[in-house]
DNA sequence: GCTGAAATTCTGGAGTG
DNA sequence: CACTCCAGAATTTCAGC
């Protein structure tokens, strides 16, 4: 990675686990003044190294009692479906969306209030992908032990 | 959820997408003074509604060019393996770890510098779970479109 | 990348309904 | 009891070096 030094990487590694750390404390950790850290963080945001910041929330407190993975097997395996994927990514229920190797190329993680919503969402996926969608496998999340480098302690939700 | 009102849920929904928002701005959005928001956020952290805060980082900037899902089929399906799962969750390479329904009960997402590390990690998993581990399926992440409610724009990394 | 000063935010206590 | 207000502390921010 050009233009990125070890201090930038330190900053990224810290922010990944402590997204709300102050610039002052971050400066102390990496050995820079608050102003310099700010410049670096702004650079990293501009470069796209930092996509955003997120709190790790227990979905139960938002009455989202059902979380599920949707594994999609698509007929097409190229970038022609990217526009559809971006549309799916924008949906409010969708927490994460990945393209990966293997048969079930698309993995979606989403949160719902109840199982009816899961069914409705699966239907929405079928409509959005149309005949490109060969198969959908749904699995329900039972425990979350770690999410985005943040430990979820007991794993109970 | 007892003791949680609509304003708390608003706060959680906003923090999920904007983890680094100031308490002042958060207060404006939900119609409360900064001090009140602070009290509520502290309450939500204490209750475990907020597990932590995380920046969404493009792994390439940390020279983590290989990201993978590990889907584990375990011989045992109860909570006796929870201690092992917690040990796996603590590993530095592990970004997320879930227990879910279906045959491949455990899903791990992890980041690596190269494919050798992937192989080494798979070996480590086998050692940790021992004879409880029936099968490991590894898939490589090609694109990340959304991560923890944060859009990753182009999906390119 | 640092310094220093100004603007903003944070924070804890006292006061209000 | 949760909220607001307010003042002091800390942080952020921006200028100039």
UniProtKB/TrEMBL annotation, chains A, B:
InterPro entries: ArsR-like_HTH, AsnC-type_HTH_dom, Dimeric_a/b-barrel, Tscrpt_reg_AsnC-like, Tscrpt_reg_AsnC/Lrp_C, Tscrpt_reg_HTH_AsnC-type_CS, WH-like_DNA-bd_sf, WH_DNA-bd_sf
One Pfam family hit: HTH_24
Record-linked PROSITE patterns: HTH_ASNC_1 (PS00519), HTH_ASNC_2 (PS50956)
Tree of life domain: Archaea
Gene3D superfamilies according to UniProt: 3.30.70.920, Winged helix-like DNA-binding domain superfamily/Winged helix DNA-binding domain
GO cellular component terms attached to this protein's record: cytosol
UniProt keywords, alphabetically: DNA-binding, Transcription, Transcription regulation
GO BP annotations listed: response to amino acid
Any one Gene Ontology molecular-function term assigned to this protein's record: sequence-specific DNA binding
Residue ranges of domain HTH asnC-type in the record: 4-65
Protein name: Lrp/AsnC family transcriptional regulator
Species this chain originates from: Thermococcus aciditolerans
